[in-house]
# Entry
Amino acid sequence: MKAKYYEEADLLSLRITNIPYKYDARQTGNVIVHYSDNKEPV
# Structure
């Protein structure tokens, strides 16, 4: 897992796998989850 904080945007990005993700994403509140071609969260 990789974590990166973008101070200028006050954004924390957590990458839980190295699988490439599509631009398919779902937002719930302040959380955005991107998904792979297999519909797995990345």
Summary: The chain has a mean pLDDT of 88.
